TrEMBL record:
Its EC number is 2.7.11.1. Residues 10-271 form the Protein kinase domain. It comes from the Bacteria. This is non-specific serine/threonine protein kinase. It catalyses: L-threonyl-[protein] + ATP = O-phospho-L-threonyl-[protein] + ADP + H(+); L-seryl-[protein] + ATP = O-phospho-L-seryl-[protein] + ADP + H(+). Residues 348-415, 416-482, 483-552 form the PASTA domain. ATP binds at residue 39. The lineage of its organism: Bacteria, Bacillati, Bacillota, Clostridia, Peptostreptococcales. It holds the Pfam family PASTA. Keywords: ATP-binding, Kinase, Membrane, Nucleotide-binding, Serine/threonine-protein kinase, Transferase, Transmembrane, Transmembrane helix. The keyword NADP does not apply.
Length: 647
């Protein structure tokens, strides 16, 4: 991985960590020239399509969050569908887990301070309807200057049952799971509050409340066992902090803090009044089974009876009156009850519980409701991306409500997703497509870059194709040209080789043989190469033209020939790339000597590389001109004999 460039811009520098589903690397964004953290999904997950889909959706959702206590997500991408990654803010510091490991229990102020920042992060995410689901000290990063940044929002949601069985690691967070998570129950914002409570417990005591031999045994403890009160482990924990922890980790969701804001308020209060008794716990006896008032009512009733029994004489005296009254009452009651039965159907209709018909076909829904004696009323059909055409997408009253028989239930039937035609993106510039897609009520999908002879940035292909009818908000993927593929080859040394071999070599490397000059030479055998226009060892683009000088053998016997006359002298030139205007640019070097200008070097370089030393060869004095993309950037006068510059 190290050295690899993802998405054409993130250069992987080093590994910084790894968890159950991913490895995390430090990387450099070449475009914005900053460090980022790149989280790359472990290969065992990349074949799980359900997981990949969720991973992408969740990380895209998390990318919408922006808060100083949340690790910013910059990008979500894939490389050839076998590397899936999230690019995020690089946080220099350590995880809260490391911090607790190193320091042991934290002071109460520190615990509260960190908990406050986590609560702020949760408050922001919860307001955006994102539940973290995996709050644990490994996902809490602390910068060197003490700021808290929570990472991995919502990503745990991508974990399916199949991924859990694929790798044992994933289940590691069970130490922080809420009872409802451990049970596989309904998870909401309060599940994050519970996990935060466990994290606070760990910060304050240096220990986890529940440990066990297996994930299952730990999960069971979350569901059934009470924690050891934090102050029994660390007496220095003030009352208010202990109360907050205990309220956050209530097993019953309803008894916990109902929002991150609530716990935040108590944390603030705890800083002011560490020993205060302000944390409100829900009493146990407000449960729905309330016996007490009923018993209280019976009591005076009993007393009345006994009071009456104490005065039997009085009753006896008026026995006939009593019997008469009883008989009359009895008859009246009979009449009344009879009447009730008779009139019931007229005045008191039967009560019905409204069933759920959402997702059912209209016919089925109608039948269900009418069988129950309810009426069906139709609202105007609506488009829906969730429900198929003809399905009930909305009902009023909702399922579970009690209504009288004959009550109308209003249904709205789905027209299915609203369709739209895919516009033509091929041959458009990549920066135009978001606008075009938005106008067509579609979304941008995966943008993949490929080499092509088309200009850089032009869309080569798209999927779905133009003209197709698709549901609104469908993602359209495109392949974009990144220009022609430029392969670099290393210029070989041809000096001393036979011209035929030199030709073959150039051909094999896809270089082109240019001018071949024949010169007489004392020392070089006839037919062998004396010099080459591009020095050996230079990286050049394919199809570059290479001129050669070939020996005719010795000619004029007796002509003085200096030993090193034709020996070129190398000089190393340090070129700084700072003035290049583009990331990829063509560096050309021209040598001007005796009024003749020759190109002695041409190759593509990357600006981000900074600089490079390039070896050029020559004899005597020459003016060297350096060009970036045909723009002159430097001129140096070089004396090849001394290897230095002259004026
Ligand atoms: P899990 O897979 O359950 O999330 P985890 O949180 O330990 O477990 P990762 O999320 O993959 O694993 O993170 C691994 C490590 O990488 C972290 O413990 C942390 O040290 C480091 N790390 C993660 N994100 C960043 C970041 N944005 N900046 C710096 N370091 C990071
Ligand atoms: Mg993590």
């Amino acid at each position: 991985m190290i050295g690899k460039i993802l998405g054409n811009r993130y250069e992987i520098i080093e590994k910084i960590g790894g968890g159950g589903m991913a490895l995390v690397y430090k990387a450099r964004c070449q475009l914005l020239n900053r460090y980022v953290a790149v989280k790359i999904l472990r290969p065992e997950f990349t074949s799980d399509e359900e997981f990949i889909g969720k991973f992408r959706r969740e990380s895209q959702a998390a990318a919408s969050l922006s808060h100083p206590n949340i690790v910013n997500i910059y990008d979500v991408g894939t490389d050839d569908h076998d590397i899936y990654y999230i690019v995020m803010e690089y946080v220099k510091g350590k995880t809260l887990k490391q911090m607790i490991k190193e320091k042991g229990p934290l002071s109460s102020e520190e615990t509260i301070n960190i908990a406050k920042q986590i609560s702020l992060a949760l408050h922001h995410a919860h307001s955006n309807h994102i539940v973290h689901r995996d709050i644990k000290p490994h996902n809490i990063l602390i910068t060197d200057d003490g700021r808290v940044k929570v990472t991995d929002f919502g990503i745990a949601r991508a974990v399916t049952s199949s991924t859990v069985t694929n790798t044992g690691n994933v289940i590691g967070s069970v130490h922080y799971f809420s009872p409802e998570q451990a049970r596989g129950g309904y998870i909401d914002e309060k599940s994050d509050i519970y996990s935060l409570g466990i994290v606070m417990y760990e910060m304050a005591t240096g220990r986890l409340p529940f440990e066990g031999e297996s994930p299952i045994s730990i999960a069971l403890k979350h569901i059934h066992e009470d924690v050891i009160p934090p102050t029994l482990i660390n007496q220095e924990i003030p009352k208010a902090l202990e109360d907050i922890i205990m309220k956050a980790i209530q097993k019953d969701q309803l008894k916990r803090y109902s929002s991150a804001k609530e716990i935040l308020e108590d944390l603030n209060q705890a800083l002011k009044q560490p020993m205060g008794n302000f944390v409100k716990f829900d009493e146990d006896d407000d449960s729905p089974t309330q016996m007490i008032p009923v018993i209280k009512e019976k009591e005076p009733l009993k007393n009345k009876t006994s009071y009456a029994e104490l005065k039997p004489k009085r009753k006896n005296n008026h026995r006939w009156i009593v019997w008469g009254a009883v008989a009359t009452a009895f008859v009246l009651a009979l009449l009344f009850i009879g009447g009730m039965f008779y009139l019931k159907d007229i005045f008191i209709a039967q009560e019905k519980t409204v069933p759920s018909v959402i997702g059912k076909s209209y016919e089925e829904a109608k039948e269900n409701l009418e069988n129950l004696g309810l009426k069906v009323e139709l609202g105007q059909e609506q488009y829906s991306s969730e429900f198929e055409r003809g399905q009930v997408m909305f009902q009023d009253p909702k399922a579970g409500e009690i209504v009288k028989a004959g009550y109308p239930i209003r249904l709205i039937i789905s027209k299915g997703p609203k369709m739209t035609e895919v516009p033509t993106l091929v041959n458009r510039m990549v920066n135009e497509i978001d606008f075009i897609l938005e106008n067509a009520k579609l979304k941008g999908g995966i943008v993949k870059y490929e080499y092509s002879t088309l200009p850089i940035g032009i869309v080569i292909s798209q999927s779905p194709e133009a003209g197709k009818s698709v549901p609104e908000n469908t993602e359209v993927n495109v392949v974009v040209s990144q220009g022609p593929e430029t392969k670099l080859v290393l210029m070989p040394n041809l000096i001393g080789e036979k011209i035929e071999d030199a030709k073959k070599m150039l051909e094999t490397l896809n270089l082109i043989l240019g001018n071949v000059d024949y010169k007489s030479d004392e020392r070089v055998e006839k037919g062998r190469v004396i010099s080459q226009s591009i020095p050996a060892g230079t990286e050049v683009e394919e199809k570059r033209v290479v001129d050669l000088v070939v020996s005719k053998g010795p000619e004029n016997v007796g002509q003085p020939s200096e030993e090193d006359e034709l020996q070129m002298k190398p000089v190393s030139l340090m070129i700084n790339f700072q003035r290049a205007q583009r990331e990829e640019f063509v560096l050309r070097i021209l040598k001007k000597q005796n009024g003749i200008s020759t190109e002695i070097y041409k190759a593509t370089h990357r600006k981000s590389k900074g600089s490079q030393s390039i070896v050029i060869e020559g004899r005597g004095r020459a003016v060297i001109e350096v060009y970036f993309d045909d723009i002159p950037v430097d001129t140096v006068k070089i004396d090849f004999e001394t290897g230095s510059t002259y004026d």
